[in-house]
Structure formats: structure tokens, C-alpha cells
Q: What sequence folds into this?
């Protein structure tokens, strides 16, 4: 089951340029029984490697803006690495207490991740409309920097690639066409996720054989997704996936808070 899910993770990245990490962390926690903090580390490696492989196809088609990737990617990479290397290890457990109820680190991460899923689902259901007239590429450097730092921190905390935040930012703040924004987003996700994962090395035990096999299945999935994307329009698939993500987010919140 976990390897079938890994293939689905790759397919989602190949079809819509995001959504992989939305499936990865819940699958690792609830199907494989991996502790949430470790699951976010595994997610960084799997989603990072898969997205990086997926970006090669976009680069081959000329749908990748390297300048934008560098401008957005540098603050994001710095933020995710520092979050995994410095913030996660010193985060107290429990994180805080509320009316006598101790919020453990695992609960905090899963609920935060579920809230991120709900936010992502809204973005997917509503969609990001691209202007019909091609705009000149103009960079809003302060906002791009702040968005990059924010996405990097969220990636570090919950192991999510943040494609649903990156793609609209690249369209609105850098003026990229949608397909170019998707390709550039995959490169950014790949780079920052893998570098963020390096912040975990040495902090926790890794099952490298499982992680390697899980990632290989996800990479196989992205090739399937890329081929399917030629037949299935992403603007129709993304809202349906968004409703699925919304239901999963609500399920995780209820499961974690009621147990």
C-alpha cells in the first residue's frame, strides 16, 4: 500500500506540479506508522528528489526560468535549512499548554500540516487563472524574498513542498506563464527540500533502504503523471484533487484532536 501511494505522489507532481507532500506525510504517519517529525524529513527527501527529476522534463521543453528560481529559491533554501537544522531540534515537547492540555510536538506538526492541506485545497479548488496576454517579467524583489522565506519555513516545519504557494507567487510576483511557473516551482521544491533534508542528517535515525525504495516508486510515478498530463487537462484535475485534499485535511484535524 505504501509503495502504491508513493506512485500516486509522483503522479500528482507530474500532473499538476504539486500536491506530492500533501499525500506523503499522512501516508508515512498513518499507513507506515512513522513518527511525524521523521515523516516530515522523509517527505523532504522523497518530494525533493521527485520534483527535481520532474523539473528536467520542463527544462528540456524550455519551460523553466532559472533566474526566477534563483531569486525565489535562495531565501527559501536558507529558511528551510535553518528550520530543520536549528528550530526543529530545539522545539520543546510539549510545544505549549492550552487550558491544562499539553500540545505535543507530533500533534502540533500534524494539525499544522492539516491546516496547510486545507489552505492548499482552497488554492487548488479555486485555481490560479493566467492572464491571456503575456506580461513582461517584472520582479517584486521584497515580496519574492518574504514569500521565499515563508515557504521555506513551512517546508521545514511540516515537510511540504509548498507548490500551492510557490506557483501563484511566480505568476503574480514574477509574471511567469503558468506552465513555466510549474516547471520553475518543481526546481525550487526539489532544491530546497533536499537541502532542508540535509539539516536532518545526524539528528535522527533514517531507514535508508525504505526511503530509497519509496522515493524510486515516487519518481516512477512522476513519469506516469507527465505522460498523463498530455491527455488530462490539469485545470480540470486540480479542483478534484483539491476536494480530496480538503477532506483529508479535515479528517486529520478531527483524528488528531479527538483521539
A:
Amino acid at each position: 500500500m505504501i509503495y502504491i501511494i508513493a506512485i500516486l505522489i509522483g503522479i500528482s507532481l507530474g500532473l499538476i506540479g504539486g500536491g506530492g507532500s500533501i499525500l506523503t506525510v499522512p501516508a508515512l504517519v498513518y499507513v507506515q506508522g512513522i513518527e511525524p517529525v521523521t515523516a516530515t524529513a522523509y517527505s523532504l527527501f522523497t518530494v525533493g528528489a521527485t520534483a527535481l527529476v520532474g523539473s528536467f522534463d520542463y527544462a528540456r521543453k524550455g519551460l523553466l526560468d532559472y533566474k526566477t528560481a534563483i531569486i525565489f529559491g535562495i531565501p527559501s533554501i536558507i529558511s528551510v535549512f535553518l528550520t530543520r537544522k536549528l528550530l526543529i531540534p530545539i522545539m520543546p515537547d510539549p510545544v505549549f499548554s492550552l487550558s491544562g492540555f499539553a500540545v505535543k510536538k507530533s500533534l502540533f506538526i500534524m494539525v499544522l500540516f492539516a491546516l496547510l492541506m486545507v489552505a492548499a485545497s482552497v488554492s487548488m479548488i479555486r485555481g490560479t487563472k493566467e492572464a491571456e496576454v503575456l506580461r513582461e517579467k517584472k520582479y517584486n524583489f521584497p515580496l519574492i524574498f518574504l514569500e521565499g522565506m515563508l515557504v521555506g519555513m513551512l517546508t521545514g516545519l511540516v515537510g511540504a513542498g509548498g507548490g500551492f504557494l510557490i506557483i501563484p507567487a511566480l505568476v503574480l510576483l514574477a509574471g511567469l506563464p503558468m506552465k513555466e511557473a510549474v516547471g520553475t516551482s518543481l526546481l525550487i521544491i526539489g532544491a530546497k527540500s533536499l537541502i532542508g533534508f540535509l539539516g536532518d542528517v545526524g539528528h535522527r535515525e533514517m531507514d535508508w533502504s525504505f526511503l530509497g525504495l519509496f522515493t524510486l516508486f515516487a519518481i516512477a510515478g512522476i513519469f506516469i503523471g507527465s505522460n498523463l498530463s498530455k491527455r488530462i487537462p490539469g485545470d480540470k484535475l486540480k479542483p478534484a484533487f483539491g476536494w480530496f485534499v480538503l477532506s483529508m485535511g479535515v479528517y486529520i484535524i478531527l483524528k488528531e484532536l479527538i483521539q
